[in-house]
Structure prediction request, 87 residues.
Amino acid sequence: MVSKKITVTNSQGFHMRPAMAFANAMAKFPCDVLIKANGSSTDGKSIMNIIAACIKCGTEIEVVCDGQQENEALDAAVEMIESGFGE
Prediction:
């Protein structure tokens, strides 16, 4: 299991487009991906769960990856979030 804390920098937070991009990217990895934010855990491969978590700009989150290719999944997740999802 690997994890990293990151602050969401995208001005709109995890709205529909970033949630979809994130979930689709994480679905390519065979490991479990969780997003911990605001005192709860969210399935990082579920678009609807990510949107429902209401993760806004400036929120510190922890991405937790557990299983095969966990390091690669974490690296991809961190890169996406730190880049602001290209927005």
Observations:
- The domain at 2-86 is CATH 3.30.1340.10 (Histidine-containing Protein; Chain: A;).
- The mean pLDDT is 94.
- The two ends are 30 Å apart (CA to CA).
